[in-house]
Design a protein that fits this description.
two-stranded antiparallel sheet, disordered N terminus, 22% helix, alpha/beta, three-stranded mixed sheet, Histidine-containing Protein, Chain: A
């Protein structure tokens, strides 16, 4: 077990035990969060650094996780390794058009054609 000397001679502070207590308190704060996804965040404390691991839905939630553990005694640095997941298109968009989840609606893209005379591309007319 690693130990650091305390101020008084003969008194020893076990840093591994303190580390576990800090991890437990950080975990407790995550478990009490109103954001269910923060309840899956892993907290790891080593040598004054608390590292947060996991996946969250937004940068806002990532910041909330960091704020929850900020100010815990014994933490010198918070290493926020939370990853923000990419949002995928839902199968039904707000317009009611179905999507394949990759952003494609299955609708035909408008065709481009050259406009006579100026050589510039333009939208093809539906009556041509």
């Amino acid at each position: 077990m690693r130990q650091r000397n305390a101020k008084k001679e003969g008194t020893v502070v076990a840093t591994e035990t303190n580390g576990r207590l800090i991890e437990e308190e950080a975990d407790k704060r995550m478990q009490q969060s109103l954001y269910p996804e923060l309840r899956r965040v892993l907290c790891n404390y080593r040598h004054g650094i608390l590292t947060l691991y996991g996946v969250v839905s937004s940068f806002h939630v990532r910041q909330i996780a960091q704020e929850l553990v900020q100010g815990l005694e014994g933490i010198e640095i918070i290493d926020n390794q939370l990853v923000v997941a990419e949002k995928k298109a839902s199968p039904i968009s707000s317009s009611g058009i179905t999507s394949d989840g990759d952003g494609s609606t299955g609708l035909k893209e408008p065709e481009l054609r050259k406009i006579a005379g100026d050589g510039q591309p333009g939208l093809a007319s539906s009556g041509a």
